[in-house]
Amino acid sequence: MSILLIGDFTETEYATWSSRLLLHLPGNEPLVQATREYDKRAVRVALVANPPAGSLSSLPNLRFIQSLWAGVDQLLSDASLPTDIPLARLVDPAMTQAMVECAIAQVFYLHRQLPTYLKQQSERMWRQLAQPLASDRSVGVLGLGALGLPVARALAALGFPVVGWSLNPRKDTSIESYHGTDGLAKVANKSRILINLLPLTSQTARILNEALFQQLPTGAALMNLARGGHLVERDLLAALDDQRLTHAVLDVFNAEPLPADHAFWTHPQITVFPHVAATTDPASAARIASENIAAFFAGRNVSGLVCRSRGY
Ligand code: NAP
Ligand code: GLV
Question: Which residues form the catalytic set?
Answer without folding.
Answer: 227, 275
